Amino acid sequence: MTTLASKRHWASFAIGLVWFFFILWPLMGIKPEGLEFGPALEVWSYVAAAALVLFVLWGLKRQGSLDFIGVPAARLAQSLAAPVRVLPRWALILAVAACALAFPFLNERYAIDVAINVMVYICLGLGLNIVVGLAGLLDLGYIAFYGVGAYTYALLSVHFGLSFWLCLPIAAAFAAVAGCIIGYPTLRMRGDYLAIVTLGFGEIVRIVLNNWMSLTNGPNGILGVKAPSVWWMDAGHWTLVSLRNLSGLYFVILFLAVVTIIAVHRLNYSRIGRAWEAIREDETAAQLMGVNTFALKLLAYAMGAVFGGLAGCFFAARMRFVSPESFTFMESAMVLAMVVLGGMGSIPGVILGALALIALPEVFRGFELYRMLVFGGVMAAMMILKPKGLWPAKRVGGRSEERGHA
Amino acid sequence: MSDAILELRDVHAGYGNIKALKGVSLAVMPGEIVTIIGANGAGKSTTLMTICNIVPATEGEVLYQGAPVAAVSPDRLPAKGLCQVPEGRRIFPRLTVIENLEMGAFLRTDKDRVAFDLDKVFGFFPVLKERKHQPGGTLSGGEQQMLAIGRALMTRPKVLLLDEPSLGLAPLIVQRIFEIIKTINREEGVTVLLVEQNANLALQTASRGYVLETGHVVLEDTSANLLANPDIRKAYLGE
Fold this sequence. Notes:
- In chain A, α6 runs antiparallel to α14 and α6 crosses α15.
- By secondary structure, chain A is mainly alpha-helical.
- Helix content of chain A is 74%, strand content 5%.
- The C terminus of chain A is likely disordered.
- Chain A has two domains: 84 residues, no CATH class; 315 residues, ABC transporter involved in vitamin B12 uptake, BtuC (Orthogonal Bundle), CATH 1.10.3470.
- The longest helix of chain A has 27 residues.
- Chain B is α/β, with parallel strands linked by helices.
- Chain B has a single domain, classed as Rossmann fold.
- In chain B, 36% of the residues lie in helices and 26% in strands.
- In chain B, the strands form two sheets. A six-stranded mixed sheet of chain B has the order 6-7-8-3-9-10, sandwiched between helices. Chain B has a four-stranded antiparallel sheet with strand order 2-1-4-5, covered by helices on one side.
- In chain B, α2 runs parallel beside α5.
- Chain B starts with 5 loop residues before the first strand and ends with a helix.
- The mean pLDDT of chain B is 92.
């Protein structure tokens, strides 16, 4: 009875409910024609009742009164998880790959559309993860590289008719150059100052795209960007087919996402990845150990931008249209939120983060007007419950051990 | 003193308008342990940061193996055998112990020697071997100091710069760390420049000492003479 009866828990429960009322009532009760208490109280009482049930259940669990259900359930879960754990890693990867490959054949347009979106953001998130998660440089203007990639392909496609596959590396290279140009003046800055400057650069890129009428057609955007095309066996001979249907595009972005994951994984466990982490932990100490912080920070910007550029190139090909309004600060903030929410420096974390932030608003469509409110609440709850992210980065030991000695 | 491995000639340095060093000259011979003692704000840490070219000298020059350090980027110095254990240890808290040590070998390409040196560091500090998979930030203060020294040893230094290794540690741990510093000097032939506030212990460890006051070297002598000097005893040894 000690836990349930303890005054402290009840007090914080009561304060929580009072706080919730004060945040709920102004939203529902303040109307142009006067103040209302009815609807707010009604919603509040539902929430309070649900919270009370959860609170009592939590209290009982802490006290051990629920062990008669909890212990067998945990045992069952463990016995179910045991065969999964003995499966080698390649089996899990194979299972995920099979699901990913079968996905467009088992789902409707809408689901495929959301999946494509998720994978675009996985590429963006993993790219930003290099800059923020590994090198520890807070970048609030990351979406600029997405924009550079998208406009590179859009312009090359419309004016020169270059193919998507040729433009992928060109877009990546342009984004990397943009990363170096933007990164260079910010290299002496740390922390908050860096965040402000990158925020400024992100806006500069968007405003340039918006106002350079002769090149970018300004806010009207660029129309008529070509979809990616592939060689395909059709009626006995190979022809060049333009991938306009969603499942074709799905496989293109799946390919890009897999390339990104493998590349970032390799970087993560390389000498360069370790040096980035050392810079994140303590820049001066890293320099004292012989890390060329100048070159490596610039490389972090460039590598992060490469994946942003790839994603941007795909985005232009998929929409077959680009305009500056796709590259607002809100997008940068979303990508950053994915990295932080998922777990900085963790590849599965960033993937989960992208999945959560793109898929959840779709799931919450049922809430209609309150969709973004619920979304915000869930984001806050996730950060409170899992401050290190959904899947925090794991330290895996020394590289020397992976090589097999020491 | 042309055969000095490390020499400072009338070095001035500072941060913006604040001049921390106002003409520091000192010399360290190969194989020596030399200490710099002084009060807070005397410029001890700045001296070490200037030697590593992190804080560039505005006047005068730092010579390492006869060549000016100013021409070398700070991140190339560890490869030349000049490595610093910075004040406050500054290990990489979220990297594991072994990853921290591997960062010390970042510039090295002789993989077999790296494995050998890793074993040697574990020999000096067995506690690091026990904790090699723990994040550095979860170690105690003394263990973190050992990790910082171990990390610097992984660069295979010729000259090791130590900035206040006794900072915030229990006397017993400090004794042990100083024993190991002496061992490293004796067995590995590493030249040590030691900055300390604990003047008593520093002078017992070193063969010579410099006394720094507000950016100037005010006294330079053998450790035995400095320990016997009544002014020093009064100012730095609490008598």
